[in-house]
Amino acid sequence: MASRPHFDIRRQPGFVAIALFTFAVLYLPIATLVAYAFNASDSVTVWGGLSLRWFVEASRNAAVQDAAWRSFVIATSAATVATIAATMAAIATTRTPPYRGLGFKYAFINQPLMVPEIVTAVALLIVFSRIKVWTGYSGLGYLILAHTAFCIPFAYLPIRARLESMDSSLERAAADLYATPWRAFRRVTLPLLRPGIIAGFMLAFVISLDDVVITEFVKSGGQDTLPTYMLGQIRREVTPEVNAIATAFLALSVLLVTVFFVINRKKA
Amino acid sequence: MASAGETARQAERKQIRGRWLLSAPALVIIFVAAIGPLFVMLAYSFMVKGDYGDVKPGQYSLDGWFSVFFQRDIFDDTVTFADAHLSIIWRSLRLSVITTLATLVLGFPTAYFIATRPRHTREVWVFLVTIPFWTNLLIRAFAMQQVIRNEGILNSLLRATGIIDQPLQIMYTDWAILFGMVYVYLPLMVLPLYASMEKLDFRLVEAGYDLYASRLAVLRRIIIPLVKPGIVAGSILVFIPSLGAYVIPRVLGGGKNLMLGNLIELQFGAGRNWPLGAALSIALMAIVMVALLFYVRNAARSGAQHG
Amino acid sequence: MHWKTAAAGAAIALMGFVGSAAAEGALNIYNWGDYTNPELIKKFEDKYKVKVTVTDYDSNDTALAKVRAGGHGFDIVVPSANYMPIWIKEGLLLEAQPDQMENFKNVDERWVNVPWDPGRRYSVPWQWGVSGIGVNKKVFGGDINTSAIFLDPPKELVGKINVEPEMNDVLFATIKYFGGDWCTADREVLKKVRDKLLEAKPKWLAMDYSVTEKLPSGDYAGVYYWNGAIMRARLKNPDIAFGYPKEGYPVFMDSVTILKDAKNVENAKLFMNFIMEPENAALISAFAKYANGVKGSDQFLPAEMKGAPELVVPAQYEKAGEFLVACPPDVAELYTRIWTDVNK
C-alpha cells in the first residue's frame, strides 16, 4: 500500500460523471414541469413571466376539486384498511417457527407486486362490471377495495421489518406478569410497532394516491381521481393548469416521503 | 409425559389456527380484488367473444388464444402468423430489454457512487433517488413529454448549441417510449443495486489491487460478481413493469406505437374482443412468471454460494 | 386513546360519504373528450341545482364497450349516428320520447326524421359536422381538397400527419378514394383500401386527438380530422386551412341519449330539453365549433363562426359529402378486421 499513497481503491473511472448525469436526468423533467406551472402565459412551451395564475385556476376548477377530494377519500380508506389487515398479517407471519402455509401466505400477500398492473386492471374490469350489474351498486366501494388489495403488500413490508427487529423479551415479561394476550399486545407490542405501522400507512397512502391504471379501468361514471383526471387532460389541450395540479401533487408526495424518511431514520 | 406432549401439540395447533385467523383479512381482500379475478379472466380467454364486447355466456372456444398467434387473411382466408400481435409483443420485449440495460448502465455507477460516499451523506443521495420514485408515474411521463417535444427543452438546448437546426422528432416514436421508461424506472434499478453495494466488503477490492489487478478487472471479477443479486433484483424490478407499461406508451407513443399493455386495453375497448384481451393478459403474465422464476432460481443459487 | 377515537370517527364519516355517492341532484354525462362546454354545464347546474359530472371517451367503440360491460354509472351518452342502431338494438337506451318535450319544436326539421332514430324517440341533436383535411399552408401550398393529403401525402407533409383514430371515418374516405360505395363488400376495392392504408400509415406521425393544440403549434402540419377541431386550430394559427376531400367525405351527427339503466332519468330529461333551447345549443357550438341542429341558435353564435370555411360547404364539394350510416354486421366485421390489420 505504501507504494501507492494516493490510490483510492473505491474509485472507478467515469462513475462519478455518470452518477451526476443520472441525477440530472432524474430532476430535469420534474424541474421543467414545476417551472411551467408558474408560467403566466397559456402555453406549456412559451414562457410568459412568473405567476400563480394556474394554481388559482386549478383550485377553482370544480372537476379538480372533486377529483382531489375523491383521491383523498379513496387513499385514506384504502390505506387504513390495508394497514390494519397488513399489521394482523405481519404479526401472523413473523417471529414464528415455519409452519405449513407460511410460504403460501408470503406469496399471496406479495402477489399484487408481481402481476403487471394492466393485467389486474382488466381482470377487475371483467369481475366488477358483472358485480355492479348484479347488485346495482356502483359507488366508490369498488375502487377502495381494489386499492386496498394492492396497498396491502406495501403496508406489510415496513411493519414486518419492524416486527422482525423487535425484541420479544418485553412481551414475554408482560405475559409473565399475567397480562392477557390482548392487553400485552395493546400496551407493549402496539406502541413498539407504531413507527412501522405509520410508515406502512404512509406507503400505502402514496401508492393509492398515485394509481392510474387500475383506477382507470375500475371507475364508474363521475369517479375520476386526480391521476385519471390528469390522464384525460394530457391527451387534450394542455395548459399550465395541468402542471400546476401536478406540482401541487408532487409537493404532497415529497412531503409524505420526507416524513417517511425521517421516521425510518429514527427507527434505525 | 404423553399428555404433556399432547397438550403442547394442541397448543401449537391452536396457535397456528390463530395465525391463520389473523392473516385472514389480508388474504381475503387480496383474493377478492387481485387473485380471484385472474382466474375469471383465464376462463374468459376460453369463451366466445360477444358482438360488442364482453363474452357470450356458456359458449367456449379457443379463438381467443388462436388469434394471439395466428390470423386468417381477410381476403383469401389463409392462416398466417398474427404478425400484428407478434410484432407488438416483440416491440414490448425489445423495449423492455433495452430499458433494463439502459437503466443498468446508468444505475450501476450511480449506486456505486452513493455506496462510496461517507456514511452520513449516503442517506441524502438515497433520498434524492427516492423522491422521483414516489412521484406519480403519470406526472413523470408528462414531465418527460415536456422535455422531448419539438419545442421542448431538449430540442431547444440542442438547437441553441448548434448541434441540430431542425427539431428532432422524438415524440410519438419508440424513442419517446424508451426515454420515458428509462426515466421512470431508473430508481427501481438504483435502489436494489445500492442495497447490495452498501454491504460490499472493500477488503476484497483491496486484495484485488494488491494482486495488481486493473480497475476494470476489479470491477469485472470482484465487484460485479459480489453485487449480482442486486443486479438481478433491479433488472427484474425494471423489466416487469416495462413489459406491462400502459401509461407511458399512451402518453408518449401517440397511439401509433402500441405496447402489449395498450394492445390489451384495445381489446377490452374499441377492439371488442375480450377473449383475445384475456388471452394476451395471461400471455403477458406468463412472460413475467418466467422472469420471476429466473430470479428466484438465481437468488437461491447466489444464496447458496454466499450465505 | 383519542387518536383511535378520531380514526374511528373518520372511518364512519368516510362510510357515510361512500354510501351517499349517488346523491339526489346528480347527472353523469359520458361524452366525447373536449366536446362539452363547461359554461353550458355551469348554466344547467345553476338553473336546476343539479351536480353534473362529465366523463370523456375517445371513440364510439370505447363508449359502447364501457356501457355494454355494465355498472358504468352514466345517465347520458352521446353516440354518433352510425352507432345508434347498435345502441338501440342492444337495448342500452331509454325511449325517453324527447319529441314530446317542450323545446322539441326548436329542432331543425332536417334532423327530426333521421334514419337512425325516426321521429326522435330516443335522442336529440348535439352537434354535427364532417371529417376533412386541415393543412398548414406555410408547409404545403398545393390542393388540399383531396384525401390524397393523408393517403398519398405530398413530401412536405410526410411524417407530420395526424389521422383521427376513428375506424369508420378513415375507411369511408379511403373507400371513396378508390371510387367505392360506403358499406361495399367488394373485395377488390377493400384490398386496395387495406394496402393503401398500410402503405400510408408509416408516413403519418400519429393517430391522436390533440389536434386543437398540435396543429397550430406546428407538431402536425396536415390532419384528417373533424371540422370543428380544425376551426379551433385555425383560430389560433391563421396559416391553417380546411379542405373538403372531393373524392368523398363523411358527415356525422352525435345525439344525446339517455341510458336504460340511468339513475338520474329526470335530470337527464331536463338536460335534453335544456339543450334544445337555441341559446343553449349555441353554447354547445361556441365551444366545440361544430354546427348544432337547433333552429334560431345562429344569432347567439360567436361572430367568428358565421360563414366560417369549416362550416359552409362550397357548392362544388357539397355532393361529395355523405352521411355515415351503420353497415350490415358482416360488412362491419370485415371492416373491423381491415382496421385491426392496419393498426398493428
UniProtKB/TrEMBL annotation, chain A:
Query: Which keywords describe this protein according to UniProt?
Result: Cell inner membrane, Cell membrane, Membrane, Transmembrane, Transmembrane helix, Transport
The record's annotation in CDD domains points to: TM_PBP2
InterPro entries this protein is in?
A: Bact_Polyamine_Transport, MetI-like, MetI-like_sf
**Which stretches are transmembrane?**
14-38, 72-92, 113-133, 139-159, 192-209, 244-263
One Pfam family linked to the record: BPD_transp_1
Gene3D superfamilies linked to this entry: MetI-like (1.10.3720.10)
Q: Where is the ABC transmembrane type-1 domain?
A: 68-263
Record has Cell membrane as a keyword: yes
Highest rank taxon of the organism: Bacteria
- Membrane topology listed for this record: Multi-pass membrane protein
Where does this protein reside within or beyond the cell?
A: Cell inner membrane; Cell membrane
Q: Report the protein's function.
A: Required for the activity of the bacterial periplasmic transport system of putrescine and spermidine.
* PANTHER family registered for this protein in UniProt: PUTRESCINE TRANSPORT SYSTEM PERMEASE PROTEIN POTI, SPERMIDINE_PUTRESCINE TRANSPORT SYSTEM PERMEASE PROTEIN POTC
Q: What is this protein called?
A: Spermidine/putrescine transport system permease protein PotC
Organism, scientific name: Ancylobacter moscoviensis
UniProtKB/TrEMBL annotation, chain B:
Transmembrane feature ranges: 20-47, 95-115, 124-143, 175-195, 230-248, 276-296
Where's the ABC transmembrane type-1 domain? 89-295
The protein's superkingdom reads: Bacteria
Keyword Cytoplasm recorded: no
Predominant location of this chain? Answer: membrane
Q: Where in the cell is it found?
A: Cell membrane
Which InterPro entries does the record associate with it?
Answer: MetI-like (IPR000515), MetI-like_sf (IPR035906)
Quote any Pfam family the record assigns: BPD_transp_1
In the bilayer, the protein is annotated as: Multi-pass membrane protein
Any idea which UniProt keywords this protein has? Cell membrane, Membrane, Transmembrane, Transmembrane helix, Transport
Keyword Transmembrane helix assigned to the entry: answer is yes
PROSITE patterns in alphabetical order? ABC_TM1
What family, per the record? Belongs to the binding-protein-dependent transport system permease family. CysTW subfamily.
| Name assigned to this protein | ABC transporter permease
Source species, please?
Ancylobacter moscoviensis
UniProtKB/TrEMBL annotation, chain C:
Q: What residue range is the signal peptide?
A: 1-23
Q: Name one Pfam family in it.
A: SBP_bac_8
Highest taxon of the lineage:
Bacteria
> Mainly resides where?
periplasm
- Where would you find this protein in the cell? Periplasm
Q: What does this protein do?
A: Required for the activity of the bacterial periplasmic transport system of putrescine.
- Family label: Belongs to the bacterial solute-binding protein PotD/PotF family.
- Tell me the protein's name: Putrescine-binding periplasmic protein
Natural source organism: Ancylobacter moscoviensis
